[in-house]
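Quick one - first record:
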Amino acid sequence: MELVIVVVILALIEYYIFGALVGWARGKYGVSAPAVSGDPVFERYYRVQQNTLEQLMGFIPAILIYGYYGNALIAAGLGMVFIIARVIYLYAYVADPAKRGLGFVLGWLATIFMMFAGLWSVGRQLL
């Protein structure tokens, strides 16, 4: 389970790095807070951060539940897939939002697997 916790912390660090990139993009593209629109490239960085926050809402409970009730090693591995997928998503989205699909799908599949595997694992424990 310790590996799962390390992966959760890495995912949170990644999210805060994405937030720092939004701050950097604000300066580079001249988008003063609290504005969240203006330069299209800034908006891409901002959307990556917001989309990652949305994904974390499912990812964190899924990895913790599956890691505890299912298989912690597989959960940690899938968690790393999620983290790498978000980096792929970042680079693809900033370059061309239409090409963000691979990063999204990889992270989403990892999370969905852990959700259902966690549910299955908890169900087995109940029986």
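second record:
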Amino acid sequence: MTLAEFYSALEAMGISLVFLMLVFVPMEKVFPAKKHQKILRPKWLLDFCFFLGQYLLWSGLVLWTLNYFADYLTSIIPNSFQQKIASQPFLLQVFEVLVLSDFLIYWGHRLQHNVDFLWRFHKVHHSAEHLDWLAAHREHPLDSIYTIGLINLPAFIMGFPLESIAGVIAFRGIWAIYIHSNVRLPIGKLRILIGAPELHHWHHDLDRRAGNYANISPIMDVIFGTYKCPDKEPEKFGIQEETPNSYLGQLIEPLLPKRVWDRIKQGSEKL
């Protein structure tokens, strides 16, 4: 990354931070899911480190990785099929991208909770014990590559134009922050169609397989029997496993065998 690119990323991060605070902090105060949760709640600094890491370090790595594989994978699909996809009406393309990506992320997300190797990285996100707009950014970079690739690469490879995908990407980004926010705006039966923060809050329950794996629309959860939404907030968020409390620890621990990490931890405790 050049100095100019770093300054550009720094500027984008600053604008995003101000925008998100202006949108979500008032919303969390007016419509709180947990009424007594403070803005500077426990571990907010850890989540802020993840926020900084996403904008200044890992977003470039994720984009480079996806572009690297996209250049190869786009040659798999026949050009004639890609042209038929691109020739469809714009709104139809957007709808198809939404449905396809929602289907893929449901099963990909469900695998993250059921396959131990994927869970090693995904549990970093679930280690957050307090949910708000900032906690949405707690994510291991390899977990980000998996998720973003699953959502975006298939549509790109099939020939959907970037114009059709870009709006969906932007909407999903804001939506992901919204469903993690400390907000409860009950919308009745409509939440089966478009989801709500309370659904994702139950996904972050201590139970690793609590359900609600869908992203935008919970229809997949309803169809496959993983929909869960009691009329209250979970008592606790987080995971039942022991996890590092530092930013570097949460980045490094999933990469190492458990016995190696245990030795490192024991050594640091003796210092």
